[in-house]
Design brief:
single chain, TIM Barrel, about 45% helix, three-stranded mixed β-sheet, nine-stranded parallel β-sheet, alpha/beta
Amino acid sequence: MQKFEKGFFIGAATAAHQVEGNNINSDYWAQEQLPHSSFTEPSGIACDHYHRYEEDIKLLADAGLNAYRFSIEWARVEPEEGKFDPEAVEHYRKVIACCKAHGAEPIVTLLHFTSPKWLICKGGWEAESTVEDFKNYVVYVMEQLGSELRYVCTINEANMGLQLATISKRFRLMAEQAAQNAASAGKSAEGTVQVGMNFQKMMENMKFAAMENAQVFGTPQPQIFVSERTPEGNLLVRRAHAAARDAIKAICPQVKVGLTLSLHDLQAQPGGEAFAQAAWQEEFTHYLPYIKEDDFLGVQNYTRTLYGPQGQLSASEGAELTQMEYEFYPQALEHVIRKVAEEFKGDLIVTENGIATADDARRVAFIRQALDGVQHCIADGIPVKGYFHWSLMDNFEWQKGYAMQFGLIAVNRETMERTAKPSLAVLGEYCGA
């Protein structure tokens, strides 16, 4: 094992809704409570990180990690349109201070999938007004906290809506072609998107969900951030990022700003080259005009995707699969970093990379292979500045609930007791301080 140079971030990541608990003013919370929800279970108190963040950050730092990526929850900061909650901001100020007290760089994400319910009632992430609404929230947060930060991600996985649209179309086609095998088709689709989704349950609940969503959000198809994105909505997300970045730079010129993208290692088998090229264009290339002014790009990768003459392929026969039905393929991270660096010339930070498994020995193996790849990239002059493992703790994996074990720390669902896994210490050993 080779340590990284001093100043390289070795950290772990979380998202507010997945760990804090009781995010009652968010769109996700509302959807979790629907009688025919697509969520296997509600988030509830999650990992109670809102109250236990000091314990969690101490565990991270004591293991040798020097950075913590977490998100600020818009629905807490602005629970009603135009009404900001100073207590929520003070909470995040304490989290930032706690990081610094333990020698961990706080890297903040301003939107990690969840939005205030009121925003969705206005049209959500397909409404023109959202650009200004997001900017106003960002301005408030940065005026309050910006002087205490050095790195900010505006939007987590800005391309997720497009990925979901592609996967949903594929799922529906598979289900129509073989209705009797719809369950297996859904399982296959779920394993190709880097977020916990239940496509099969969504299909079954569609007729009920429309009515229930209309009652809660005023529309049968609420446009949350993790909805199938239209081309217009995709442009809106890019514009929201640019507006937020410019606002941050105006308030806090010293802060380094970027967004994060969900990126697969797209591998073409003979005859699949055109499909892989088109997928990369959708997943990455068309974002370049909107991120070229950014200070860094957050690279988020978990696996690879194979393409053949007919399009996307399933994982190779006999391939090891994770709990999320992803292929165990840590080499993907190096491939994606190299591909991104061909066109994006700013700094790169691996803001998410990890594996859902009950076998922590496989997590250790994944970390070691992934970090070997990062070090190869750095040796070749690619400006990679940090690696954040997903996730700090086992948490609420969106529609999949608490069954997915991504964490470096185990959380007892009954008592909330934390237990560091061996993988946490292994990751910490790479830190050069």
